[in-house]
């Protein structure tokens, strides 16, 4: 029971992980965008609050300085010293924006703004109704207190981290809830496949055994054709049965490595599929060399069988299957329907099929990829719609 659960978990892992990663990537991007926007809004609100606080204080300074300018205006020229204050610096400009006198550290004046940042200083612009000493614009300058900015960034950092953690925990819970129907469906499908595999064993073995025992020499020609069709159908089901058996049982068995003569194995498997290929009038083109690899023969047979089965299944009537074997590489090409370019990265996913018009569970190529990964064999797929597909194995 534990092994069965482990296999269920493994079968779910890849598809569920991909879906989860896609969801989390999109969700994380949206969370980061939301947190960034909230951080900008918070920073701007703190900046406005700082300006609001500064406005009240600088208005008081402007009032004080205006009173001093009034005194200086009425006692001019007896008094000629411009009033100064340790709390702020100031400047006066006339109605044409010409400087009358200035103590400012930053001379970048925005006459159309009441309060603004000028470098590391805050400027407050006061318009005078009475032109003391010809002054229309009184500018008050104080150094900007950076404490508010440090506090704002501290709050943003703490809030962003806490919000990100909270959102991600919520996202994981949400993702699990969304993925649960898919997980349940895959578990149900896996159980169905296992039950189907178990039920196929006895009748399929009986059919294949009885076909082999029949004496075709005494059969009428029409009965031979019927038997051939039964043989083809049985071998098709047998191919599916072997895939399902490997998927549910044999993939966890211990690996039995041995020397495999690939040229001979490929010829044996072609002979096995000849009857099936003849139904579509397919022609095999062989260009093989004597190549030996060390691997589990049953697993390599599964790889070759699935490559040949797909080349037959998705080929056009009267098409060709080309097999090229060299030291370090194996190519299996067909002249079939081809695969959409956007689907190629997903053809090794379990339950993925080339097209929906063909039967099968879509487990063959997932088995192929799993076995090849186990032996560090690279597989590449080249395909063009209505021209064919080429599978290239390199090691």
TrEMBL record:
UniProt entry keywords in alphabetical sequence: Kinase, Membrane, Phosphoprotein, Transferase, Transmembrane, Transmembrane helix
Reactions catalysed, as given in the entry: ATP + protein L-histidine = ADP + protein N-phospho-L-histidine
Top-level enzyme category: transferase
GO function terms (MF aspect): phosphorelay sensor kinase activity
Entry EC no(s): 2.7.13.3
InterPro entries in UniProt: HATPase_C_sf (IPR036890), HATPase_dom (IPR003594), His_kinase_dom (IPR005467), HisK_dim/P_dom (IPR003661), HisK_dim/P_sf (IPR036097), Sig_transdc_His_kin-like_C (IPR004358)
Pfam families: HATPase_c, HisKA
Transmembrane residue ranges: 20-43, 156-179
Domain Histidine kinase, chain residue ranges per copy: 195-395
Recorded superkingdom: Bacteria
Protein name (record): histidine kinase
